[in-house]
Design brief:
Radius of gyration of chain B: 21 Å
Largest sheet of chain A: 7 strands, mixed
Radius of gyration of chain A: 25 Å
Strand content of chain A: 15-25%
Family (chain B): Belongs to the succinate dehydrogenase/fumarate reductase iron-sulfur protein family.
Strand content of chain B: 5-15%
Helix content of chain B: 25-40%
Structural class of chain B: alpha+beta
Order of helices and strands of chain B: EEHEEEEEHHHHHHHH
CATH superfamily of the domain at 255-396 in chain A: Succinate dehydrogenase/fumarate reductase flavoprotein, catalytic domain
Enzyme class (chain B): oxidoreductase
Pfam families (chain B): Fer2_3 (PF13085), Fer4_8 (PF13183)
CATH topology of the largest domain in chain B: Fumarate Reductase Iron-sulfur Protein, Chain B, domain 2
CATH architecture of the domain at 255-396 in chain A: Alpha-Beta Complex
Cofactor (chain B): [3Fe-4S] cluster; [2Fe-2S] cluster; [4Fe-4S] cluster
Number of domains of chain B: 2
Largest interface: A-B, 81 and 67 residues
Number of strands of chain B: 7
Distance between the termini of chain A: 65 Å
Largest sheet of chain B: 5 strands, mixed
Number of helices of chain A: 20
CATH class of the domain at 255-396 in chain A: Alpha Beta
Shape of chain B: elongated
Oligomer: heterodimer
InterPro entries (chain B): 2Fe-2S_ferredoxin-like_sf (IPR036010), 2Fe-2S_ferredoxin-type (IPR001041), 2Fe2S_fd_BS (IPR006058), 4Fe4S_Fe-S-bd (IPR017896), 4Fe4S_Fe_S_CS (IPR017900), Beta-grasp_dom_sf (IPR012675), Helical_ferredxn (IPR009051), SDH/FRD_Iron-Sulfur (IPR050573)
Number of strands of chain A: 27
Strand order of the largest sheet of chain B: 2-1-5-3-4
CATH architecture of the largest domain in chain B: Orthogonal Bundle
Chain lengths: 687, 242
Amino acid sequence: MKVVYCDALVVGGGLAGLRASIACRQVGLDVIVLSLVPVRRSHSAAAQGGMQASLGNAKMSEGDNEDLHFLDTVKGSDWGCDQQVARMFVTTAPKAIRELANWGVPWTRIKKGDRPAVINGEHVTITEREDRHGYILSRDFGGTKKWRTCFTADATGHTMLYAVANEALHHKVKIEDRKEMIALIHHGGKCYGAVVRDLITGEIVGYVSKGTLLATGGYGRVYKHTTNAVICDGVGIATALETGVAKLGNMEAVQFHPTALVPSGILMTEGCRGDGGILRDKFGRRFMPAYEPEKKELASRDVVSRRILEHIKRGYGANSPYGDHVWLDIAILGRAHVEKNLRDVHEIAETFAGVDAADDSLETEENLKGMPTDEPDFGPGAPKQKGWVPIKPMQHYSMGGLRTDYKGHSHLKGLFCAGEAACWDLHGFNRLGGNSVSEAVVAGMIIGDYFAAYCKSAELDISTHIVEQFIQKSHEHIQELLHNDGKENVYEIRERMREIMDEKVGVFREGHTLEAAVNELEELYKRSKHIHVKNKKTHNNPELEDAYRTQKMLKIALCIAKGALDRTESRGAHTRLDHPKRDDANWLNRTLASWPDPNQTLPTLEYEPLDIMKMELSPDFRGYGAKGNFIPHPLKEQRDAEIKEITERIQAQGGDRYDLQEALMPFDLQPKYKARNVRLDDQRQGE
Amino acid sequence: MGRQITIRALKFDPQSAVSKPHFKDYQLEEIPSMTLFIALGMIREQLDPDLSFDFVCRAGICGSCAMMINGRPRLACKTLTSSFSENVITLMPMPSFPLIKDLSVNTGEWFAGMNARVESWAHHKKEVDITKPEERVDPDEAQSVFELDRCIECGCCIAACGTKLMRENFIGAAGMNRAMRFLIDSHDERSDDDFYELVGDDDGVFGCMSLIGCHDTCPKQIPLQGTLAQLRNKMVKVGKAR
């Protein structure tokens, strides 16, 4: 049996994993990064919009700081996040972006003078100061008080990932691609590395390490319709779940994006609607004003997603071989606008849907047939134009993941987790746009550093006998998949799982459908033990890989569905039709899912309370939907009084915002990252 | 009913003692907006679970799925079946990369070697304090670096390169483009002379025969023709001065 030894094992070669591996090299550790694909191909590359960091450089970003970024993030999370983690994050993000700039990310920079922009549908001119010329520019994103999203055109994730991968090369990080973790090696509550399968040769090797860090990304592929890359299947954290010791947090917290292209699932940016694009149903009616008279198409992401699906459920979606959808009409903006301001959207629609999104010429009037005449609220019908783009809400982001403490350490000693795979828990029940790539790289710095410190001090006190047992067990599992007498087809099971997740554990959730989902998924899970793999090769066998992955994905699906069934409230992206209020009295907590007995067919759920008495911001109205749509926590008044008292005291003492923050909620962070961020304004005042 | 199309794919498993390269035909009914990502997915799930190919982002961003499509290197995820009027679409793995199996080639190893060779990171000796404002960069410089930094390492330029077929260690357009990206980036303190050490030979800029297949096939439309000419020009000057 082949065994490889190292100080630190990192599973996952995206932004979080690579940045953490650099932290390991900086203290001289022998680190190996395992990746399913060549590292620069990870899903981190797909982030287009940008990275949030409160630099406050540009005109529309003036006055931005950590406090505002913190406020936006906590509100965005619907008070489900760990506020100390949010503080760690917002304090480190400006340093992360400056480090990346130094590593060569070609951030879009400020150009002095006037530039045109569209704000609230109005054409305006923004004037940038001369002394800001050449510093990093930020753009606007939903849910933020300032323009805080730093970017490189529409390829932010790509340039960030390449810079970090380049730096990993510079630091001589050992990277092995086309390698898949299939089990974790653990003993006595401690993790000692992983059993790894070579995806080219099929060889199974033990990687023994002092510490292991998972940075394996999200789990969007348990849904049929998702914006996620095909490698985002959640198998990494499912493998952690299978240890029986590690626990998954808030798996039911799944974000959906309203305008994903049908069928590919590629995002059509929110900018389409921001610029004035509208949504139409199969009769060409603009239906959003009927549901959301005030904000119409520009209501928040979760609201628009819910309305689109509600409308499709009424039977007003357009039919396609890929299911019912609605139309995004940006041709209404005129060809000049689309080709200039929505260039990439135009290209994506052309390539992936074969639609020229700027084409407002008539395609057919057939679509008007059968339009109900007694529904004036939904507006007049319109004949189908060639440029309408098929879209519908799809799974987008995984707020849940492997539960860790603020240092990124899981319930299994020696096992760490960072990035989208983790429930660290920065995002609570809803993530703010621009906070995902930002989290990936910031967590890679902070958690990577804690992880490296752990690996430096840990000892490899495990017998080779135990390591060999784990390798043997994985080997037997592969043989069992290849040579059992089962009859089940892996693709039928996987497809049905994905349909159930879309239909019953999607944007809208309800007790009885969730119960049906859990039952059916449990049945599928039992069936998955009898998958028959036709292809008997042990090397390079995609069917075999899909078989063992599907077994693990079903566990993830069950954690999501069961978590959603038991959480009888609505918080952030988790919307229960039968429990519409956010219920802080009963649900100000985090769901923990575990799988202690390999023979059980459902996860074990327990709950970890969020301590309201330690919060810097007590749970409050989030700013949309009906006001007062939450049941307050019994200690809210007490905490509010405390916050008021502390604030008054610090102000009376002449303390600044840092003193106040420290008094309200002290938090731990490495001194190099906790150091105050200097901004251009501070410098000017100091001069 | 959509038209009937045939996907004709090369099958070969170099790790098998009995496998021989051959084409296999798969009949499918074309559906609207069908890309080769969708078509190959259907083939694996319904017709042949043993067919190997690579996809990750399926959105033209990650560079995993480059293959020879009707004789030309392209990204399979971005290619619509409807873009071909003929009913047969022939798929082959890209040349110049080690074959893994069927349509899957090992681009990772090649690009890792290229990155190591051009020392693909910003070289500088400054100690930078990340609590302080970043260095200023001219917006136009940032834009020019970005234009070249968009390379997704898909390998189309290598597969389309005549020189690479004859010269095993040729660095290709992707490598020269990467060198140029750092040469114009003010965060990198390397001189033209330093880059000459890396790419100033027949396996680098002086091996290029200027067939410009790279420029014609780059799916990101990176201006490779001009970039390569510019780099070669700089390297010739260094060479002459020596």
